[in-house]
Design brief:
Number of strands: 4
Radius of gyration: 22 Å
Structural class: alpha+beta
Largest sheet: 2 strands, antiparallel
Order of helices and strands: HEEEE
Number of helices: 1
């Protein structure tokens, strides 16, 4: 009887762990502050925080600045360069 129960318990634990890991990965939505890139001319750029939160999950519209909705927001990579494109937070 023990030879049967132990492998069954191991399989059930493994299946449960795999399912739990998948659910956690799918529900993760990283929230980041949105930054806009400002060109000061002569190769001088600045990445400025807009105060708007955006998501890194590409599943909706691109996150835009509330003052000018044509400006797409990005994650901060450094003071002079903005990183990856961000997306609107989905409920």
């Amino acid at each position: 009887m023990r030879k049967f129960i132990f492998p069954v318990v191991l399989v059930l634990m493994g299946t449960g762990s795999a399912f739990a890991t998948k659910v956690v990965k799918e529900s993760k939505q990283a929230i980041e502050s949105g930054y806009r890139l400002v060109n000061h001319g002569e190769g001088q750029f600045e990445c400025i925080n807009t105060g708007k939160d955006c998501s890194t999950v590409a599943g909706g519209p691109v996150c835009t600045w509330s003052v000018d909705n044509t400006v797409q927001l990005r994650a901060a990579a450094s003071e002079t360069m903005c990183g990856e494109l961000l997306y609107e937070i989905q409920p």
